[in-house]
Every structure is written in structure tokens, then in C-alpha cells.
Specification:
- The protein is mainly α.
- It has helices at about 10-45, 50-55, 60-80, 90-125.
Length: about 130
């Protein structure tokens, strides 16, 4: 085995290691909360505040993913800045790839809540009876 040969790991293992424990727990928890709250707003929400609530609730996983990306970039570039040698392009590419992973996962985890909100409000708009004069 050559010393410079990269170690082969599965994509799932790499993603779990790249996200870290904090965001590995926080992103799915935010996605679950987002889906549950979006469903509750679609079923029970009334008036203009229901739409505002959906705008607040649905993108939660994506916002956490964006925060994680900024957090990762800041930490990685701090490490690169204090290192005594010039970073290799592969080190910088690794920083960029690992930093782009959390928003990607957040976007994927946001999709079910977005789907629930979109379909729910569409169905509700078709089935809800409007009262004239309000």
C-alpha cells in the first residue's frame, strides 16, 4: 500500500463525519419539527398569520445548514491561517466541499416540509369556503 493513497470511505460515512455530531442531530431534528409545524399550520392555521408561520417554519433546516456552512468555513480557514505552511489546493478543496455539505443536507431535509406546506395550502384553498363580505 502506498502511503499517499487516499483511504476509501463510503459516501454516507464521509457525510456523517463531515457534518459532525452537532449538525448530524440538529439538522434532522429541525426537519422533523419543520414538517410537524407545517402540517399543524396547514390543518389548523387560519388567517394571514398562517402564511407567515409557514414562511418561518419551512426553511428551518436550510437556515441551520447555512449556519453550519459558515461555522465550518470560519473554523477551517482559522486552522489554515495558523498553519506554518502554504495550504495545498486539495486542502482548500476539502474545506469547500465539507462546507457545502450542510446547506445541501438542509435543502434535502427542507423538501418534505415545503411539499406539505405547498400541497396543504393548495388543497385548503380549493376546499375552504369563503364568506363574502369579510
Amino acid at each position: 500500500m502506498i502511503a499517499d493513497e487516499p483511504i476509501q470511505v463510503s459516501l454516507l460515512t464521509w457525510m456523517v463525519n463531515s457534518l459532525g455530531t452537532t449538525y448530524l442531530v440538529l439538522l434532522p431534528a429541525a426537519a422533523l419539527l419543520s414538517i410537524v409545524l407545517a402540517l399543524a399550520v396547514v390543518i389548523r392555521g387560519r388567517g394571514p398569520m398562517a402564511a407567515a408561520m409557514l414562511i418561518l417554519v419551512v426553511p428551518m433546516p436550510l437556515m441551520i445548514g447555512c449556519y453550519a456552512a459558515l461555522h465550518g468555513v470560519i473554523n477551517a480557514f482559522q486552522i489554515l491561517a495558523v498553519s506554518g505552511t502554504a495550504p495545498k489546493p486539495s486542502d482548500i478543496a476539502t474545506v469547500v466541499v465539507v462546507s457545502l455539505l450542510p446547506p445541501f443536507v438542509g435543502l434535502l431535509l427542507m423538501t418534505p416540509a415545503y411539499t406539505v406546506a405547498t400541497i396543504g395550502t393548495f388543497v385548503r384553498s380549493l376546499t375552504e369556503k369563503t364568506v363574502h363580505g369579510e
